[in-house]
Design goal:
The protein is mainly β. The chain contains no helices and ten strands. The strands form two sheets. The chain has a six-stranded mixed sheet with strand order 2-10-9-4-5-6, with no helix packed on it. Strands 1-3-8-7 form a four-stranded antiparallel sheet, with no helix packed on it.
Length: about 120
């Protein structure tokens, strides 16, 4: 199963964007789905994850501003981003996390670019 992110774009600081991610097939129940981002010159970091039971984890930097949604029937995950800041700029990727081992899938796709202007 591969995931592909979409929905990025250019937005002013304080604005909102909604990212979407679709899986090429059914996501097993023991996989969480997550959003990651990579800013220019920095390592990729976890933004948010959601398990099939809807429990969520957020990076401290996005708590209260971003919300992750998962549609198990459609095998999709979305990220609603509000009150965007220039430091949110980066390429956003979605991926799956095996909750039994903690490992992510090796397929990252091309991601979707989010640019927040000040």
């Amino acid at each position: 199963v591969q995931l592909q992110a979409s929905g990025g774009g250019l937005v002013q600081a304080g604005g909102s964007l909604r990212l979407s991610c679709a899986a090429s097939g059914s996501v097993p129940r023991y996989y969480a789905m997550g959003w990651y981002r990579q800013a220019p010159g920095k390592q990729r970091e976890l933004v948010a994850t959601i398990r099939i039971g809807a429990s969520t984890v957020y990076a401290d930097s996005v708590k209260g501003r971003f919300t992750i949604f998962r549609d198990n029937g459609k095998n999709t995950v979305a990220l609603q981003m509000n009150s965007l800041k220039p430091e949110d700029t980066g390429v956003y990727y979605c991926n799956m996390i095996d909750t039994r081992s903690g490992y992510t899938s090796n397929y990252w796709g091309q991601g979707t670019l989010v640019t927040v202007s000040s």
